[in-house]
Amino acid sequence: MTSESETFSVTSPASVVFGAAFQQPADCPRGRCSAIADGQREIEHLTLAKAELREVLAREHLLLKETEELVEKQNLLSREADHRLLNSLQMVSSLLFMQGRQSNDTAITEQLNVAARRVAAIGSVHRRLHATDQADIIELKPYLAGLCEDITGLLPGKELERVLILEGIDIKVPAAIGIPLGLIVSEMITNAAKYGKGKITVSLRKHPLKGYALSVSDNGPGLPVGFDPKESKGLGMSIISSLVNEIGGELLLVGNAGHGTCFTVLFSE
């Protein structure tokens, strides 16, 4: 029997585990109560670690968001710069064509027109690149097909005098290789149209030793016997040789007077 003023304090298992301070009850075996105390400390450590992990994840999320915003800003600036570059190239090309039409000297007019077509071809190479979904990787054959379509409209002579054909395999190459190849093809096609008439064929195929071979051939009058592209002082050949060296490729030339000409670039991915 107890009086109404007496009170009883009953400690539940939960209050023992999660209490601010652990006190071993007199009737609790020492080993069991020590295990409960160890469990309490482990839970406290896990709770603290969970809070720290949440803070780290929050900081990482904020950093990732800031990085994405920075990348988007850089992409926007890059697209704007590319747009300005393409507009500038188009303007330069138009001015060169205009100067060519105003000149009374046939030789000067031809040189200005060649320069205008060269600038326009560079613009076409970059425009076609940025029209692809993946700027870092290029599907080479469709890329070259678009360039050939653009270049056809820039070539001198009547439409019926030129036929431009693209044939070969489909491969993907890095943009660092695709852009120089596009410029090389542009120069080769321009040279083929300048010195010959008729069909111009662009061919892309595998090569047993070097990886791939990209050729531009024509059925025009061909080059003089003994012609050495390395000794040529022409701007077109200088550009082609420089671009071939840039991609670590090899330039081959097959051409005899009266039998057309074939320029081939050997390259690897």
Q: Could you characterize the architecture of this molecule?
A:
The protein has helices spanning about 15-20, 30-100, 105-130, 140-150, 175-195, 235-245, and strands spanning about 135-140, 160-170, 170-175, 200-205, 210-220, 250-255, 260-265. The radius of gyration is 37 Å and the shape is elongated. The chain has six helices and seven strands. The N and C termini lie far apart (about 95 Å). About 55% of the residues lie in helices and about 15% in strands. The protein is an alpha+beta fold. Helix 2 packs antiparallel against helix 3 (about 105-130) and helix 3 (about 105-130) runs antiparallel to helix 4 (about 140-150). The protein folds into two domains: about 30-130; about 135-269, 2-Layer Sandwich (Heat Shock Protein 90), CATH 3.30.565. It has a five-stranded mixed sheet with strand order 2-4-5-7-6, covered by helices on one side. Strand 4 (about 200-205) and strand 5 (about 210-220) form a beta hairpin.
Write the layout of secondary structure elements.
Blueprint: H1 13-18, H2 30-102, H3 106-130, E1 137-139, H4 140-152, E2 162-168, E3 172-174, H5 175-195, E4 198-207, E5 211-218, H6 235-246, E6 250-255, E7 261-267
Parallel strand pairs: 2-4
Antiparallel strand pairs: 1-3, 4-5, 5-7, 6-7
Helix pairs in contact: 2-3, 3-4, 3-5, 4-5, 5-6
